[in-house]
Amino acid sequence: MEDLTVRELLPADAEAVIAHTKLVGGESDNLTFGAEGFPVSAEGERRFLAAMHDDPKSVMLGVFRAGALIATGSLNSLPRRMAHRAELGITVLKREWNRGVGSLLMASLIEYAKSAGIEIINLEVRSDNAGAIHLYEKFGFRRIGVSPAFFKIGDEYYDFVLMYLDLRRAVRAYSRGFGFVPSREMKVELLPGQEEELCSKETIKEIFAKDEKGECTAFDIYEGDELVGFIMFCEYPEGSWFLWNYAIDARFQNRGIGTRALSAALEYMKAHYPVKEFTTTYCWGNDHAKHVYEKVGFTETDVVEEEDYKEVNMVLKAGGEQAPGKA
User: Fold this and answer.
1) Distance between CA atoms of 98 and 87, rounded to whole angstroms?
2) Which of 165, 176, 208, 279 counts the highest number of beta carbons within 10 A?
3) CA geometry: angle at 110 spanning 204 and 198, to 5°?
4) CA atoms within 13 A on the CB side of 257
5) Which pLDDT tens digit goes with each residue over 247-304?
6) What are the backbone dihedrals phi and psi of residue 33, each rounded to the nearest 5 degrees, phi first?
7) Domains, the chain, ranges and CATH?
8) In angstroms, rounded to a whole number, what is the distance separating the alpha carbons of residues 161 and 149?
């Protein structure tokens, strides 16, 4: 995404923002406005952007590709006893969907919120907008309810899902005693030589930087208050999640945590994402990896042998059934 630029939108951008709202409003029924755009004059938009800039807990960001505005994201602070909260909203041109633009905006907005001392971020999203809900959950937002008939378009009513992100502490969703916090980098420390069998920390950062379609999802794994592991999945094709990286911190290896945490992670994924199957690979001869994967239900499908390496492919169906051809 080297050709993308994220920056604050200022009063000088008012006309570009108005043009963008008309384009994006005509491409879906997910926003509060349609192709007419948001009802505001250029001068009114300039005043709004100036007010956003002057409020230390609010911001309006724009994503530009080759100088053209393709997406906007906002954090709007709330007053008085709600001053610890902000409301989030994003808009992305349809041609830029599934290209990582939404993820780039979300990461930028959350980082701004942390730096501004915002404690809780709220948002509302159409209940049938599965792509947006998936994006928000990937960044740690949790569903807290449904607002019935939030929109009325013609004679049709549409419910909205209410979501929030608590920045006061790492938001952990739990499965089988382990906590999972969305992450985009591996923080655990490995034993010498283990990075050769796994993705390095730098490689993982590069993968997320190039993940234009938002296919990758990763979590820090906690047991109590201890960071014990890291796990990373990538979805391709739809519903098939490849276990790309799984690591237990060197301090907690050989304690039985690896198998238990992996089993909990798979259950967490099935509870929060549309999973048809999990796949993974291990290097031929890595009997420890084979044992752990088989213990949680993976079965071998085939062996890939090249001149300089030999890998075993494995699969775990979401329903627990074995791969075809396996006893």
Assistant:
1) 23
2) 165
3) 10
4) 22
5) 999 999 988 899 999 999 999 888 878 889 999 998 888 888 899 999 999 999 999 8
6) -135, 165
7) 4-166 (3.40.630.30), 173-317 (3.40.630.30)
8) 11
